[in-house]
């Protein structure tokens, strides 16, 4: 059975996207499936049986042991359109599994099938305890979100850009600073939901950084995107979808005294954005104690932080009037992941925060536009 959806144009992915496609839909080796079996249980499904319903909040992760299962998207009038077919060794799911968002697709069996089913909690345990499998799964989930964006430019939303037709607005709707788990999730959701988005990856997108093990063990959580050619392809592809990736750049300075906000990069460029999400993680501190501290010195004191640089948000942020979740003392500047004071410092919580913060960014931009 073809991997292509029924009725889709039979086309081979372009060479420059083939590597990304393979990492978005990997086939797990038998040894990994055996390890995963300890976290779930085997189920059977007859043709037509629905495993996950679009719009439901029931979350589960399936590894296909034998058969074929189809992923479908609801269109206008309730008609289901086939997106792809999974085969033996492949798995279902996306970043939505780690958020409170409802299922965006329907998954159903197209042949008699056997599957390994893991609950959300079981999947989280597996990812936290099995690093090799975690890298494969998290990389695939992020790339699937990018693929979702590629299939439907701007995610069906209207861009907020005020540029004239045929022109690009030089002011971004959102700048995401930090290419770790929280930043990647935030950028993927923001771009797919119609925001002109810039992701400044910095040192967290590739290589290890000092600090918390569960974050630093994952080079940006998606090692495949840390290869130079893949980074360049991702950057090239992103532009036509309202997203811009600068995975190897870092931020040197922030100016919160003007609006739109201004951020300077390490190469001297200046960018302007109507909102920011700070997801720059942690770094080793100075002095004998070498305490881990937030990587926020580049903010130049514009935000309310604790003595280690962790950013206060919501009601805890000094001078905060609106007390939006994840919003700092500076309106329209949000903090997620390890850089946020009071956050849970592990990779899955960071992903969830990055995705959740995008909803609040929408509210801020809506309010500031009126």
Description of the structure:
By secondary structure, the chain is of the alpha/beta class. Helix content is 26%, strand content 21%. The strands form 5 sheets. The chain has a 5-stranded parallel β-sheet. Helix 5 crosses helix 8.
Unreliable residue runs: 1-13, 152-167, 203-231
User: What is the β-strand count?
Assistant: 18
Broad shape: elongated
Distance between the termini: 51 Å
The residue-averaged pLDDT reads 78
The number of helical segments is 8
Assembly category? single chain
Strand content: 15-25%
Helix content: 25-40%
Which structural class should the secondary elements be placed in? Answer: alpha/beta
Going across the biggest sheet, name each strand in turn.
Answer: 11-10-9-15-18
* Rg (CA only): 21 Å
Q: Which descriptors apply to this entry?
A:
single chain; disordered N terminus; 5-stranded parallel beta sheet; 4-stranded antiparallel beta sheet; 21% strand; 370 residues; 18 strands; 26% helix; alpha/beta
């Amino acid at each position: 059975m073809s991997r292509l959806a029924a009725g889709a144009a039979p086309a081979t992915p372009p060479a420059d996207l083939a590597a990304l496609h393979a990492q978005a839909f990997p086939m797990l080796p038998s040894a990994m499936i055996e390890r995963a079996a300890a976290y779930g249980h085997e189920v059977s499904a007859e043709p037509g049986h629905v495993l996950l319903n679009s719009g439901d909040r029931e979350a589960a992760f399936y590894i296909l042991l034998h058969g074929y299962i189809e992923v479908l998207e609801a269109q206008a009038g309730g008609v289901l359109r086939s997106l792809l077919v999974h085969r033996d060794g492949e798995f279902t799911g996306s970043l939505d599994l780690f958020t409170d968002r409802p299922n965006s697709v329907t998954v159903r069996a197209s042949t008699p099938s056997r599957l390994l089913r893991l609950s959300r909690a079981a999947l989280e345990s597996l990812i936290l305890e099995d690093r090799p499998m975690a890298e494969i799964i998290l990389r695939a989930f992020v790339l699937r979100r990018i693929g979702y964006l590629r299939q439907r430019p701007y995610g069906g939303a209207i861009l907020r850009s005020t540029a004239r037709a045929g022109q690009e607005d030089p002011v971004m709707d959102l700048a995401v600073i930090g290419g770790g788990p929280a930043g990647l999730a935030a950028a993927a959701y923001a771009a797919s939901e119609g925001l002109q988005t810039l992701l400044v990856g910095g040192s967290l997108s590739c290589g290890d950084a000092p600090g918390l093990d569960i974050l630093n063990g994952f080079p940006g959580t998606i090692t495949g995107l840390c290869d130079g050619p893949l980074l360049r392809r991702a950057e090239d592809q992103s532009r036509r979808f309202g997203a811009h990736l600068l995975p190897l750049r870092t931020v040197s300075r922030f100016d919160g005294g003007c609006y739109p906000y201004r951020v300077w990069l390490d190469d001297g460029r200046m960018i302007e954005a109507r909102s920011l999400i700070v997801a720059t993680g942690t770094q080793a501190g100075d002095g004998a104690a070498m305490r881990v501290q937030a990587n926020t010195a580049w903010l130049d004191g514009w935000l309310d932080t604790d003595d280690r640089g962790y950013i206060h948000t919501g009601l805890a942020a000094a001078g905060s009037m609106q007390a939006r979740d994840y919003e700092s003392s500076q309106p329209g500047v949000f903090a997620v992941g390890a850089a946020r004071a009071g956050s849970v410092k592990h990779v899955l919580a960071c992903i969830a925060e990055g995705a959740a913060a995008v909803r609040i960014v929408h509210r801020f931009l809506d309010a500031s536009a009126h």
